[in-house]
Specification:
single chain; 155 residues; mainly alpha; 9 helices; 80% helix; globular
């Protein structure tokens, strides 16, 4: 990601000059989970969200960032980011991240103490979307449904 930022700066690549810092902050926050790197991720998300051409790419990065926020303990922030991204999935018909959207949403709901049936609903939806898209990787997310059911039985 650092190389992308450097090359974009050298050659005037407007798209990558804007996206590079965001991708770099995603990578750093996911790796370190430090407060500083997560704060930088949030700052870069806010800056990128203000770009008018960003809408078509927003769902991909927002789902990734929401997952990172959840991993750092900010499930509520991750859920808020997903809520903001959802209209872009619909408006721009960005179906590629849709199964992952539902999976990440389910995990964030679980982490924030939501009703297990709501969590399961989102996991089932993730599998349904993956099947329609013929995405075997995401279809395997059905395993998470079993994990949720077992966890529910333990409570």
């Amino acid at each position: 990601a650092e190389l992308v930022v450097a090359i974009a700066g050298e050659h005037g690549g407007v798209f990558w000059a804007a996206m590079g810092p965001l991708l770099l902050s995603c990578a750093r926050a996911a790796r370190s989970m430090s407060d500083n790197d997560v704060a930088q991720l949030r700052q870069n998300l806010e800056a990128t969200h203000r770009l008018t051409w960003w809408g078509v790419f927003r769902p991909y990065i927002d789902v990734l960032a929401a997952n990172i926020l959840g991993a750092t303990g900010d499930g509520v922030g991750g859920l808020q980011l997903l809520e903001e991204a959802r209209p872009f999935i619909e408006e721009w018909e960005q179906r590629l991240p849709e199964a992952e959207y539902y999976r990440v949403r389910a995990n964030l709901l679980l982490a924030t103490g939501a009703d297990p049936s709501e969590v399961e609903t989102h996991l089932v939806r993730a599998v349904e979307v993956a099947r329609v898209q013929r995405s075997k990787l995401f279809e395997l997310l059905g395993i998470e449904i079993i994990r949720v059911r077992v966890q529910c039985m333990q409570h």
